[in-house]
Amino acid sequence: MPRSSNVSETSAEAEAAPGDWRQIEPIALPGTLAAAKDAFHDRGFHGTSIRDIAARAGVSLPTLYYHHENKQGILVALLEAGMSSVLGRVRAAISDATTPPEQLSNAVEAIVLHMTADLELASVARELRYLDHDNPHRQHYVGMRTEVEDLLEDILRRGIDSGDFQIEGDVKESLRYLLGACQEVTTWYHPSGTRSPAEVAGSYAVTSLHAVGARPSTQPGTSTRTTPRS
Amino acid sequence: MPRSSNVSETSAEAEAAPGDWRQIEPIALPGTLAAAKDAFHDRGFHGTSIRDIAARAGVSLPTLYYHHENKQGILVALLEAGMSSVLGRVRAAISDATTPPEQLSNAVEAIVLHMTADLELASVARELRYLDHDNPHRQHYVGMRTEVEDLLEDILRRGIDSGDFQIEGDVKESLRYLLGACQEVTTWYHPSGTRSPAEVAGSYAVTSLHAVGARPSTQPGTSTRTTPRS
């Protein structure tokens, strides 16, 4: 029961609507998950107790245990909320374009917008290493992450075949490079800084196109990409 | 006294010898710091007690407190050991080249080799957010990190001036992109995998040159860069 409750508690909010992949608002999370997200961000998974989470959420331990089997279950729910959101964004962003350069640009933009929309939720992805390896939900989470990677790898391979991209080395390693750069946005981006989410997302899309050796003529909208879209 | 002991305990090992910037061995750390590094990696800063560190190191609490004022002091010593190592490598790598593309290639290679040489030590950099903002050593650490960033920014700006690099947007954001990609190596690299540190470092150097719009003719040694050097 607790595990199925996890899923039903988060699934409604987690999937981005197809046309909404450029939205910059954080995902709405139930109170206990929002509290856990803050706690994990402030003190890490092992530095947070289930009592800390209940206290931050202002709920009793029995209420918290009604929804989540244990702290691992809460971590799973947060990881899945973040990953299903980015997967939904990336799918929609790719559908919104046709050529490999446009699709890569959109996909990178979608990932960076996911990072900046909720820095704390995006940072929780780093806590995956604390999820038990035999946790039955681990496979589902890793499956979603693999789907994101596969979608991008497919774009890179189609772009190489079409002559749009020039990647000399290992395609998967180029992909890790791109995704790593995007993931690290959570460590330096501040909403109060001078750069808007759309500006960062646009400039990361352009840099990613360069990184995979996109010919300048194939780079979509580079002249306007560093301008906020909305 | 404890803080000056921190420094003397680590400084001898921390600075890479100038000619050694391509070495792939982990930094030798005193036993207590090696134990703390493992503990922080396994459970995070707040998930680790000073007793855990003493137990892992096989020393008494008084012995540990003789060298380090508290857990924050241990974190400082680890952060400084990692950062002074990468700073030493980057300085030496840049001195070992003349043109901006060669220097960028060397610098990225040096940073990735730092990451792969000791994944756990390199990961400790993420724990900076748990270092008290009024810790007197924070400024020294951040100063070293800023020096690494400034060295790379200087290369990018000289490369733009010389026409070697084509960066359309913000130079600092391009730099964050490169450094982020390198930092994330710690999250996916496994020494037991198919890629050697030199191979990953070489391919990251090539991808970084692409990312900053290096003209193919200016990219040093790209045809051999994915081959291990030693």
From TrEMBL, chains A, B:
Domain of life according to the entry: Bacteria
Keyword DNA-binding: yes
Native source species: Gordonia hankookensis
Bias-annotated ranges (Polar residues): 1-11, 216-230
Segments of the chain annotated as binding DNA: 49-68
Keywords recorded for this protein, A-Z: DNA-binding
Region Disordered, annotated ranges: 1-20, 211-230
Name of the protein this chain belongs to: TetR/AcrR family transcriptional regulator
UniProt cross-references to SUPFAM superfamilies, sorted A to Z: Homeodomain-like (SSF46689), Tetracyclin repressor-like, C-terminal domain (SSF48498)
PANTHER family the UniProt entry points to: HTH-TYPE TRANSCRIPTIONAL REGULATOR RUTR, TRANSCRIPTIONAL REPRESSOR MCE3R
